[in-house]
């Protein structure tokens, strides 16, 4: 059996049981977390003792290391003990010892520092064990030692403080102070050295983007101290779990990123990443305060005097102290020729770096997304005015919350698609992206641009047929004047043609040519009018049309709301999240309303019924008081005026024109036709008498 693998195993990480996979081979033991948490690698030659004891109410394996550290793994089955025993005996010559915890609930015993762990036991039976690296502070107060612990943001329950009471023994009270000795032993492995000690190196006036400002950084073997103008920070080396070194897009600076867990805090603000910004061309010589033994342990990575670019020197120091690999950009090169993509996240500009095993975004907020946590990706054009120039990149996580990067240049679309395809990451719109990738990477087709080009080519073809001549100003003015005179003459031609036709009808045949079906009398009357009068008339009619628009009565009762709108108004703030648009909130509300049961909707349906009854009662009262009657009558009266006015004027003008050139014998007929509209309008007898009197006066004058 050359290798063993146990999935679903967890490791203790600052109070959190981080799930992952444990692998054992002939040379080493390794644990890899599922969500980017704690990772452990121990060589087989460095293992110093194996114990089988419970962790989290399940069988576990306690692995001791020669340097005093302890790693505890849990989540095994009882049947796994036999497999592990055979493997460790054959590969590492290490037997597994059975160790049962003392769980009677006693609160007294012996507190000792063994290796790098605080062990509380009773008669050599362990009760609990805490790594010294979990301790953030130790205070000695007479007979009591107070321990404060680091917090893990991913843990739901955290150990904040623990107090040990150590009574003074009368026989040894003058010789040893137990509390002080206990404090010194814990501090020796907790990474809490006093700053009075000499640091390995001092970095002055270092620009940091997160937290923002310039800091003097003191690097100690187990911690980092940042001193700024306003705030100071202290970071244990053990809280650094990843190192990144990436260039800026402008090529003039380099980012050195430290991933922190737990993060450093300033009030309510948490910083999970420490980002240092180094000029690429800056060089500085550093003297390292390290012993010959420490330099030998670095395997040649560190020297007494470090020379060269500052960012290379600092990255080498942290790589050796933290014992971590530095992640640098891989083979991905964007459209700009650098591994960085300019984009925004929640309206904050930054740079996205597609790395070999994840995405790194700098900054605000800085984040690292592992490929193992990604379920799919989506490439789409941006919403907004510049839809053809930018692309949105959406990363769907297995946890369900998507992360969207906006305003990427459209030229990065094909680069990202090829990168995701090589990494075997699922793309939600592969057909759509492939069609884009097949096109030229320099420029995507623009329909409007293609149309303009086609029109320009067509104009060029038309201009090629014509001969080029010198421009003559006088000739051009004569041509424009001729066109203007012809347009004015054509505007008055319809009146002359119409009058000549009427004269021909009255003089001889008495029959007129039949009107075409397409030309109605209204169109003929418009055509017969001069252009200036027609334009004035159209403007006047347009103004009247705007005045006749029906206006909403402000006294009218408010309409009733449906059950959905009643519920949505009351729960909108609960549904809305940071960064959601109006459409996103409406979409979430509709989906949640659809998933609700009939019993949950019953309350809102009752409110809707009450609102409906309220509206009906108010509407009834509104109509009873005469509401809505005046607004409904206005359009009918105005429309009747409009219909009666133009039609009567058109009839009069037509008959006047058709009868104007008749003989004197037909004049009585003309008078009867003139009197006809008045009879139709329903005037009184007196008005008819007035019209007869006017006719009689005309006869006398004739």
Automatic annotation (TrEMBL):
GO terms for molecular function: DNA binding; histone binding; nucleosome binding. SUPFAM superfamilies: HMG-box, PH domain-like. Residues 630-650 have a biased composition (Low complexity). Residues 527-541, 597-606, 667-681 have a biased composition (Basic and acidic residues). Its main location: nucleus. It comes from the Eukaryota. InterPro entries: HMG_box_dom (IPR009071), HMG_box_dom_sf (IPR036910), PH-like_dom_sf (IPR011993), RTT106/SPT16-like_middle_dom (IPR013719), RTT106/SSRP1_HistChap/FACT (IPR050454), SSRP1-like_PH1 (IPR048993), SSRP1/POB3 (IPR000969), SSRP1/POB3_N (IPR035417). This is FACT complex subunit SSRP1.
């Amino acid at each position: 059996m050359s290798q063993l693998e146990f999935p679903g195993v967890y490791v203790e990480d600052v109070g959190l049981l981080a799930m992952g996979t444990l692998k054992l081979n002939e040379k080493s033991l390794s644990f890899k977390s599922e969500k980017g948490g704690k990772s452990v690698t121990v060589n087989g030659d460095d293992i110093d003792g194996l114990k089988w004891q419970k962790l989290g109410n399940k069988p576990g394996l306690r692995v001791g290391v020669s340097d005093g550290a302890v790693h505890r793994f849990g989540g095994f089955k009882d049947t796994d003990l036999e497999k592990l025993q055979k493997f460790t005996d054959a590969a590492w010559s290490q037997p597994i010892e059975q160790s049962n915890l003392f769980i009677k609930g006693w609160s007294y015993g012996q507190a000792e520092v063994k290796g790098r762990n605080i062990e509380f036991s009773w008669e050599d039976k362990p009760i609990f064990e805490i790594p010294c690296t979990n301790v953030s502070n130790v205070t000695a107060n007479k007979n009591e030692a107070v321990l404060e612990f680091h917090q893990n943001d991913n843990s739901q329950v955290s150990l904040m403080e623990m107090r040990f009471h150590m009574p003074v023994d009368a026989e040894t009270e003058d010789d040893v102070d137990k509390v002080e000795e206990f404090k010194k032993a814990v501090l020796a492995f907790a990474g809490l050295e006093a700053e009075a000690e000499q640091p390995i190196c001092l970095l002055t006036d270092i620009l940091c983007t997160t937290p923002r400002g310039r800091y003097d950084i003191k690097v100690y073997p187990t911690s980092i101290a940042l001193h700024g103008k306003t705030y100071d920070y202290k970071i244990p080396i053990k809280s650094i779990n990843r190192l990144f070194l990436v260039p800026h897009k402008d090529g003039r600076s380099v980012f050195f990123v430290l991933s922190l867990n737990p993060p450093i805090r300033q009030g309510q603000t948490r910083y999970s990443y420490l980002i240092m910004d180094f000029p690429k061309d800056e060089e500085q010589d550093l003297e390292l305060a390290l012993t010959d033994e420490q330099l030998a342990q670095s395997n040649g990575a560190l020297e007494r005097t470090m020379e060269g670019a500052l960012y290379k020197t600092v990255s080498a120091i942290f790589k050796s102290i933290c014992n971590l690999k530095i992640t640098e950009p891989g083979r991905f090169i964007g459209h700009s020729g650098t591994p960085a993509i300019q984009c925004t996240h929640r309206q904050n500009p930054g740079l996205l770096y597609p790395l070999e095993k994840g995405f790194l975004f700098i900054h605000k907020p800085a984040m690292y997304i592992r490929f193992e946590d990604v379920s799919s990706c989506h490439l789409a054009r941006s919403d907004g005015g510049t839809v053809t120039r930018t692309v949105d990149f959406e990363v769907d996580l297995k946890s369900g919350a998507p992360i969207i990067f906006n305003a990427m240049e459209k030229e990065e679309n094909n680069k990202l698609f090829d990168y995701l395809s090589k990494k075997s990451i699922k793309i939600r719109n592969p057909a759509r992206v492939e069609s884009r990738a097949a096109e030229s990477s320099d420029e995507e087709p623009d329909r409007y641009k293609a149309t303009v080009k086609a029109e320009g080519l067509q104009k060029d073809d038309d201009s090629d047929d014509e001969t080029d001549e010198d421009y003559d100003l006088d000739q051009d003015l004569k041509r424009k004047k001729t066109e203007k005179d012809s347009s004015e003459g054509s505007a008055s031609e319809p009146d002359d043609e119409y009058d000549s036709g009427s004269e021909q009808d009255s003089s001889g045949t008495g029959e007129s040519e039949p009107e075409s079906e397409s030309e109605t009398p209204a169109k003929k009357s418009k055509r017969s009018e001069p252009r200036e009068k027609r334009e004035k008339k159209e403007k006047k009619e347009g103004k009247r049309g705007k005045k006749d628009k029906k206006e909403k009565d402000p006294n009218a009762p408010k309409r009733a709301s449906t059950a959905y709108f009643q519920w949505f108004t009351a729960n909108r703030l609960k549904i809305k999240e940071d960064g959601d648009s109006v459409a996103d909130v409406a979409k979430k509300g509709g989906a949640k309303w659809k998933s609700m049961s009939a019993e949950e909707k019953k309350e809102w349906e009752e409110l809707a019924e009450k609102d409906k009854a309220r509206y009906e009662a108010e509407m009834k009262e509104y109509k009873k008081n005469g509401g809505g009657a005046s607004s409904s009558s206005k359009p009918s009266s105005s429309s009747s005026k409009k219909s009666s006015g133009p039609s009567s004027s058109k009839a009069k003008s037509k008959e006047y024109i058709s009868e104007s050139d008749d003989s004197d014998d037909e004049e009585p007929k003309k008078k009867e036709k003139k009197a006809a509209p008045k009879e139709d309008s329903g005037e009184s007898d007196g008005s008819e008498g007035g019209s007869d009197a006017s006719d009689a006066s005309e006869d006398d004058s004739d």
